[in-house]
Amino acid sequence: MSPKIVTAAMVAIGDELLSGRTKDKNIGHLADMMTMVGIDLREVRIVADDEAAIVEAINAVRGRYDYVFTSGGIGPTHDDITADAVSRAFGVECVYDPEAMALLAAMYERRGMEFTEARKRMARMPLGARHIPNPASTAPGFAIGNVHVMAGVPQVFQAMLDALLPGLQVGSPLLSRTVRSPFGEGDIGSPLTEVQKNHPETSIGSYPKFDGKNFSTDIVVRARDPQALAAAEADVQAMIQAITEARAKT
Amino acid sequence: MSPKIVTAAMVAIGDELLSGRTKDKNIGHLADMMTMVGIDLREVRIVADDEAAIVEAINAVRGRYDYVFTSGGIGPTHDDITADAVSRAFGVECVYDPEAMALLAAMYERRGMEFTEARKRMARMPLGARHIPNPASTAPGFAIGNVHVMAGVPQVFQAMLDALLPGLQVGSPLLSRTVRSPFGEGDIGSPLTEVQKNHPETSIGSYPKFDGKNFSTDIVVRARDPQALAAAEADVQAMIQAITEARAKT
To answer: Which residues of B touch A20 (CB under 8 A)?
Structure first.
């Protein structure tokens, strides 16, 4: 039985991510959630608040992966242009969604606040888009085709993603085990290449850590099949044991 | 005198960034440094340890921006394939660079460590590439054309970037001022659109903050001309003052 693979890409939108003013938190969160549910995040693009750049990024990835997730640019101000850009990417009109207008009007009435022209912008989305509920602050995200458009504020992004996750198709989860190596990559590189060759159905990553003086390594074995994972993990551990013993002799 | 604009893109390479295992620190650091020296970071792509994906990303951005910076995949293990991918992107051979071999051989001899086949991999780079010095751990990064290839470990990435910065062409720095608004974007959206229209030579961004209950906003005015910046900033402050006074009356 071959494992089912479901793929995704993310487009993070915002000048503030590229100027350094804001340090993105949504990419890492989406990556964690995708790994947890069994979707392979394959690519991320960070683009400016520039309609042409957003359209290009969305159109480059939406035909290539099962899902696309975006963050940012769906608020009420002039620099929030994601709804327009996604509409253009799909070649449909960007409209004030009647259901979103009703949700927002009711919420502002309840709070005794004016439903300004700016706030009405948050009801704009591509014609025919589906809502993504926003339990944090009402104004919905939206989905059209396989593209899911969410807010950039991390609390709101996370709430929208939580609302979305139960409805996504997922693949066989990619399992992983981490083996910590007290040796640097230079010491384990050649034998680790052999372990990888002997376990082609696993993907073995090696992540150096540097404490300012010495390198150590986290070796991460990944596989969809638990038996393949266990066999490769055992060989990595045996490799480290062999290096330790060889060193003890010298 | 029209301001000089220098642009850049980044390609961050590594499965661990897409699985959530590692939360990237290099993108935010590069963004900060670019803003500081006056280079516009326009786009970032995060790609997997996959040669085709790396080649595609590098070739997509290197003709489009003045500089490209990459992070990750230049260590000694089998999953470090950035040197091969960049060589392929430029259509040149990937070779053991004699000068890098000499540097590494001397360093390992000094430290009484074996210069293993794995460690020799760190001397591989595209034929004709220039070195990027690595004061943190010797193994150099490299540059070919406008593409600058650096390590993924943040301490090493930062040390390589520090070595690189003094030699880069830079543009007129983009200046910015932040005005804090106690009002949410819905309250300031329409008047802020007017301010932006009246100051077309500035770029005004609006960044909502959410404390779990209420939104406030950071308004960031950016310009290359100090006078244009000051004029737009004054109008943003006047706008907030006007909203505050209007509220006090009701």
So the answer is: 28-29, 31-35, 41
